[in-house]
Amino acid sequence: MKALDLDVLTMMVAVADTGNISRAAEVVHRSQSAVSMQIKTLEAAIGKPLFLRGPRSVTPTQDGEVLLTYARRMLALRDEAWAAVVRPDVTGRVVIGVPDDYASSLLPAILKSFSATYPKVEIQVVGLPSVALAPMVKDGTVDLVLGTRVKGLSGEFVRFEPMVWAAPPGAREIWRERPLPIAVFLPGSVARENAIRTLERAKISYRTSYESPSLLGLLSMVEAGLAIAPLAHCAVPPHLAVLGKAQGLPEIDPLELILARSPMSKRAPCDFMAEKIMAELRR
Question: For 125-183, how does the pLDDT look when each residue is reduced to its tens digit (9 = 90+)?
């Protein structure tokens, strides 16, 4: 039972979420050898392997998945207990910048939970592409940015967000057309760059049939059956089809999701919002 130390469970969750010991070490601010040793010590105490080690990644075993479920609950309960005693009267304002493709899929549950815990904190959300939010976080226009790592925008690693090809289900097989019609974000978007680089690497001819800074615009083209769109998996609505190798489309490099902070964000509400975002999205 002593092996189920919360710090060790935090390391275990980080390893599961990142799929990599070295990336997990960055997340928990420990050395790679320290994280590896703690996981092995935990496995020895339990008497069962918790992860399957591959050449480039690690994945939880069945026993590991069971323990991860409890670990997440234990860590969440710790955070709730701390907030209930230490943070009940937090007041202030937090301005969060987030691109469209993350705003609709990743933030709602987080903001709802945060507002329930800190009802006196005012929250404002600014929806813009990551590249447009970079100068805003530097000058303090926004306190936090949950976005994709781009030139000029750096922050704490959250997780890798997989990218997929989104298409209308049941429509004509538009993904077989050549040149392939794609709907993409404007230049400067990492999602756009990743998709185009992937197509060129696979020697698949394409044409950009639609460009927009808005996720809604891309989805409209997909729903009309006029293009497919390379999107973060979390941003694809359930009524659209997710395409990949089975349809002859190449796998797209994932997006690196980060949390950036303004120098002026050193305030309790911003600290607690950042903690909430990191805790929820690393699960």
Answer: 999 999 999 999 999 999 999 999 998 999 999 999 999 999 988 757 889 999 999 99
Task: Give Cα 237 to chain centroid, integer Å.
Answer: 16
Rounded to whole angstroms, how far apart are CA atoms 51 and 46? 13
Q: How far apart are CA 59 and CA 137, in angstroms?
A: 35
Please name every residue paired with 164 in a beta bridge, in sequence order, or none if there are none. Answer: 231
On whether the CB atoms of residues 237 and 104 are closer than 8 A, the answer is no
**Nearest residue to 82 via CA among 279, 283, 281, 282:** 279
Closest to 50 in 3D by CA, of 95, 13, 100 = 13
Which residues does residue 159 pair with via DSSP β-bridges, in sequence order? 257
Contact present, 227 and 112 (Cβ < 8 Å): no
Q: Is the peptide bond before 179 cis (omega within 30 degrees of 0)?
A: yes
What is the pTM (predicted TM-score) of this model? Answer: 0.70
3-state DSSP assignment of residue 150? strand
Alpha carbon distance 94, 81 (integer Å): 22
Helices (H) and strands (E) in the chain, counts: 10, 12
CA distance 96 to 262: 10
